[in-house]
């Protein structure tokens, strides 16, 4: 989006927020820190402005992963409000309208503000405020909050901070510009208890999570001179440790950081529905040389250039072959 | 140090830097990111001001741990310059004059600027600019740099950024206030390539380092209901993986984050000099409830309240007993 178009979209979103009274906020399925942080922060901004706001999430998202259970979700509904057609629908951190399983479809009668930072956002909104330069969707919400004259209290500041910290990988990813740090400084000055936030997000870690990591690290494989570093978590690992599926979070970062790695992949076996073993595959690109969202799309999934994923019924060997082929295709010198 | 005394010390340091022409910069033994970042940054500030500056480090510090080898150490000497008595000696990030093995002792004829952020700094300088509120020594150097009117180029900015990132644990430790983020924003705007810095510090990780982690995590022990979480790295682990001693860096963070942990300890066997096995013990406190610098001092070492260490010839069981006793003593309700 060109800078002018972005400024226009921002103005339109601000105008719509100021002009409307009733809102329904949604985010993507299996919400992460930025999805939940942006959702809760936007809800608080709207509430602070005296608007009627409902956050909407599917009932089957609960319980949330343990690290996100601290969010104050009062104001949340698991069924669409009866007057949803009269509400402005705000999508937050949602690259694709299909990634929210709420049966909301674009139509003349639904007014959608699409606020996101995913570069591959499908622009499904009535207004699309999509800024891939933003480190996280929370950064866009923070900007809107300031433009709307809302002063953050501690809870609002913490919701935004969670989005910032999780989507920048603790300020480590390439998307972390000066603006992200200015935002952090302001949020801490507004009362964020950083120690408490980090404890909730990254500490108070259930011991089975450490045991799961220990198991996963025992069978790391490197392929193609290390360009593909691959890990696996099996059903047996889950069963032996009592770990939940969400405890695999973070394992892939260990694979990603190994010298020479272009693409890190973690395959975890999830409970199969009808006897067919299903794997969820997470992908990370270490330096942007390989676009893992393209690999994920080839596998039937999606995501960012540097972080993406898909589900598959491929066996272990077939999966490795698929990934090696995909990585090799992107690393091959472009033909002229 | 009271705010007035701190401002005085800062003024005196600035005055000394402006007034003197020749400097010799030192830091603590086994330098970490903040020690090296502050050293290199101060050297560049002084050089930029047209001063004659020498960085001094003991020859046996080399080679540095792989993650710090990128520092530009031109201007470094491993023997004290012949005119050292005529030079202003600047100690950076050095809590105790004994922690630099260079034979520099305080005396009437040695002029020492002691610039540090360790709360237990022994104030050994002619001027002591010791600010425990600073997230890192680099933050103090950054402040001095600005007061001296030096504009950072990319290399100076990166040296400061390395100090900031490593001593705040990627902005995660309690010492990370708004000032740390403002500093980060300015340094990134001055040209820090954050992605390159993080790759050097945390990625491009030799595969044996991941193998060492996998081994260490297999034998984590929890004591006293989890208050003490303890890990070990044995000589066999080093031998089997080919890992260097510095590859143990970061393992303790995994122990620290386990739910319920008050103190995390990692003991690693180092090459024994005369047949007696020696262990280096690193300690971390998770929430400041236990002062691990006191435990380290009881063991003959030192450090910060939340991060400290010592060396010991205790056997495995004796070491566990010592640590349990020390932790229990601090967790016991104070007698009235």
Taken together, the total number of domains of chain A comes to 2
Please list the strands of the largest sheet of chain A in the order they lie side by side: 3-2-1-4-5-6
**Mind telling me which CATH architecture of the largest domain in chain A this is?**
Alpha-Beta Complex
In DSSP terms, counting alpha (H) and pi (I) runs of 4 or more, how many helices of chain A? 11
**Number of separate strands of chain A:** 12
The portion of residues forming beta strands of chain A comes to 15-25%
The gross shape of chain A turns out to be globular
How can the largest sheet of chain A be summarized? Answer: 6 strands, parallel
Classification by helices and strands of chain A: alpha/beta
Give the full name of the CATH homologous superfamily of the largest domain in chain A: inorganic pyrophosphatase (n-terminal core)
- One letter per element, helices H and strands E, the order of chain A comes to HEHEEEEEHHHHHEEHHEEHEEH
Helix content of chain A: 25-40%
CATH topology of the largest domain in chain A: inorganic pyrophosphatase (n-terminal core)
Q: Terminal Cα separation of chain A, in Å?
A: 29 Å
Q: Evaluate the radius of gyration of chain A.
A: 20 Å
* Mean model confidence by pLDDT of chain A: 91
Oligomer: homodimer
Unreliable stretches covering 5 or more consecutive residues of chain A: none
Largest interface: pair, residues per side: A-B, 42 and 42 residues
> Which CATH class of the largest domain in chain A applies here?
Alpha Beta
């Amino acid at each position: 989006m060109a800078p002018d178009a972005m400024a226009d979209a921002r103005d339109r979103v601000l105008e719509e927020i100021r002009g409307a009274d009733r809102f329904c906020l949604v985010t993507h399925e299996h919400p992460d820190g930025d999805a939940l942080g942006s959702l809760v922060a936007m809800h608080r901004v709207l509430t602070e402005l005296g608007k009627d706001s409902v956050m909407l999430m599917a009932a089957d998202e609960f319980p949330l992963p343990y690290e996100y259970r601290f969010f104050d979700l009062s104001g949340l509904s698991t069924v669409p409000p009866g007057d949803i057609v009269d509400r402005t629908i705000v999508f937050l951190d949602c690259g694709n309208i299909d990634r929210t399983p709420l049966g909301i479809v674009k139509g003349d009668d639904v007014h959608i503000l699409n606020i996101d930072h995913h570069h591959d956002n499908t622009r499904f909104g009535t207004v699309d405020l999509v800024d891939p330069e933003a480190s996280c969707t929370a950064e866009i919400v923070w900007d809107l909050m300031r433009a709307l004259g809302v002063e953050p209290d501690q809870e609002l500041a913490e919701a935004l901070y969670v989005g910032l910290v999780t989507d920048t990988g603790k300020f480590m990813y390439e998307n972390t510009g000066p603006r992200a740090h200015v935002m952090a400084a302001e949020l801490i000055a507004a009362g964020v208890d950083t120690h408490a936030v980090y404890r909730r997000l990254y500490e108070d870690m259930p011991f089975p999570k450490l045991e799961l990591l220990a198991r996963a690290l025992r069978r790391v494989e490197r392929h193609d001179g290390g360009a593909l570093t691959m890990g696996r978590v099996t059903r047996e690992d889950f069963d032996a440790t009592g770990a939940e599926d969400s405890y695999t979070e973070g394992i892939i970062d260990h694979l990603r950081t190994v010298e020479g790695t272009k693409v890190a992949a973690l395959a975890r076996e999830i409970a199969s529905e009808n006897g067919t073993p299903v794997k969820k595959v997470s992908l990370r690109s270490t330096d942007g040389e390989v676009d893992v969202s393209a690999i994920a799309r080839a596998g039937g999934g999606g995501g960012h250039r540097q972080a993406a994923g898909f589900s598959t019924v491929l066996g272990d060997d077939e999966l490795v072959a698929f990934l090696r082929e995909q990585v090799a295709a992107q690393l091959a010198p472009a033909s002229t």
